[in-house]
């Protein structure tokens, strides 16, 4: 099994997890695009850390604001949701603390996987561009840039998203809601609407208990995943109609596709981090300047994507019907390919 995975070009055996001996990757210089990706990845990691620190520093005020509040956990259906249960009081406070810990662990795991690739491949520019942090940063930058272009275009026609609902909440309540959206919405729209169906279909096909790993994402693109991405993104867009209005539906649909792609290719931890930073960039001092910088970088990355598109991400006819049977180790994107 080790030899089979070595022949596939993997860094680790998918059965036993042992590191495979391979000749070091040929060191070559990257282009300006790789430099931009590195810079955006550094900004992304900085944003994760600063947003978490802002939440921790404000935790006392946030917990006080949550004393008389409740939070529903739901299955999203678009314009209406099925609420499974609600948390309030001490339970909601404990959930917020756990939520910060989970996001912090996701950030640490993404950083570990990124530096593991760097150690393995010798800073190969193409492989480094597809690590967890690099992918998260580039997807977030493009999300911010396309959202800005779309909203400016709509504003020019006299159409704007309705933000009046925010006036009903205090500063600390909004901090909680923006922090919570990154985790709760990704669990609802990506894990529930993509991961669970993928796991069920994979189990029906392979009859292997390892199929539960599809819940974590990172299984790669396939025809089934592609369809689920479109469906979940449409529901994600409709979920923003209440409060924001129809202008936000298209914007959220486009963002949902990028978030869902990150879930499918890189894993749940990556899409949670992207969503978390997307919503919390303005919660810490200097965050607005990082957001503007990411928007500018996103325009450049978007142009690069148009010039050199990743056809495996959208060419439906070339995709396998389902990802292969899950092996003993969750592989990164560059290890799979």
Automatic annotation (TrEMBL):
GO biological process: CAAX-box protein maturation
Membrane keyword on record: yes
Regions crossing the membrane: 32-54, 92-112, 133-156, 187-204, 224-241, 288-307
GO molecular function: endopeptidase activity
This protein's UniProt keywords: Membrane, Transmembrane, Transmembrane helix
InterPro entries, A to Z: Rce1/LyrA-like_dom
Name of the protein in question: CAAX prenyl protease 2/Lysostaphin resistance protein A-like domain-containing protein
Source organism of the structure: Methanomethylophilus alvi (strain Mx1201)
